[in-house]
Design goal:
The chain is of the alpha+beta class. Helices cover about 35% and strands about 20% of the residues.
Length: about 500
Amino acid sequence: MDQTQVLAGRYEIEGLIARGGMADVFAARDRLLGRRVAIKVLHPQYSADDAFVRRFRREAQAAANLSHPNIVSIYDWGEDGATYFIVMELIDGRSLRDVLRSDGPLLPRRSAEIAAEASSALAVAHRAGLVHRDVKPGNILLARDGTVKVADFGIARAWDDSQELTRTGAVIGTASYFSPEQAQGAPVDARSDVYSLGVVLYEMLAGRPPFQGESPLAVAYQHVSSDPAAPSTENNDVPTSLDAIALRAMAKNPDDRYQSADDMRRDLLGFLRGETPVAAAAVGTDEATQMYGRTEVPPPTVPPDEAYRAASERRGGQLPFILTAFGLLLLLGLGLFLLFRQLQSEPEPVLVPVPQVEGMAEQEALSELQGDGFRIASIVREFSDEFDSGIAIRTEPPAGTEIEEGSEVTLVVSQGQEVFGVPPLVGLTLDEARQLLEAQELELGNVTEQPSDSFAEGLVTAQDPPPGSNAPEGTTVDVVVSSGRQSFTLDDYRGFTEDQVRAELG
């Protein structure tokens, strides 16, 4: 799409945010209301497909009815010529996927907070009859103020549509976060989202998904047949109570999981309050409810920290609050006294701006920072589509920030463009090839039909790039599809001798 385009005479496209299997997301400005928004635009190759357009319209209508602080809001839906789009809330922050790639595993408490807010969003959708079907770190956004937002209910369907999906053999979602029933093409309900959120919680704690393999099919098979190790085997800081929550959510049999996102959230909030999550050990939802008590669960919009404070006040009454406040006042007075003495006795620190090192080679950037008197706290490497491997991307704090001379600075260096393995597509149907590519963050490109004596009509006979090669995210893979055996019409050779016919056929 032209990034200077204005959709429906109202939405001025500013730049690309992300690419997806069916649509791209752009930052834009709403000229009518004077606010910045995000716009999801359906890929041109799907705009002519009535089935895809109907799914796209259903996404807008269903998601627009979901109103919750932890769900990305839908503002508008429309079309401009052959372009179909959805207007959404623009989140100032990063996706959980980007955070995990750059920072590795999160602190157990922060992991539980994120999972609790995400489960709150899912619970609202489930009560509205919608299953997300694609819960993954890329669809969980972390705003700069710490709020968690679940995005892209693009493949959520009403529960009573699940039979249609089963009949057509559709498998929707991303392989690393599939529930076993999704991997098997079986009907799914809210417990499938609980499983996927359990996988996300596992990755936040362990720094990697529970199952990994050479292909999406290999990963999907492990979801069906293999039991994950506890997250604490990868990260010793993970407490056993949080191990229990993640593994309960990831039970193979849906009946053995949390029976709702609310049940999972109840255990997560119990962990955040310092309680033992007894529901993680309970066999059924009714037992878990009796052991915990529903009166202990705050409303879905209450953040975890606020829930912790409310629970503490209920347990301790007013006396602990008064004693705590008095202690804080004493500490504040002591701190002010010490600060006043320090200001009187010490000179003001020298503030130095952090130099601009973007685009420099790693060693050159290090020399520049150290030459200005800064100490290197760490070197963080992350994937980048803009910078070659070994080139500095930014510093933390950012360039131009004035900090005390001799302070520590983190240097972020590119490790090049992230690449994905191109899966083998030969012998698959076009829909199977498309799903496999989307699971690997790749896209289906040009489709050419050619006759084939070896493959039935509709099956892929060749692909470019070839299987096993590496390609950047969003790369298109062109395929050749069999149109069946080649046929031709014979002339009428009645009255010809055998030699004459052979000569004619050559």
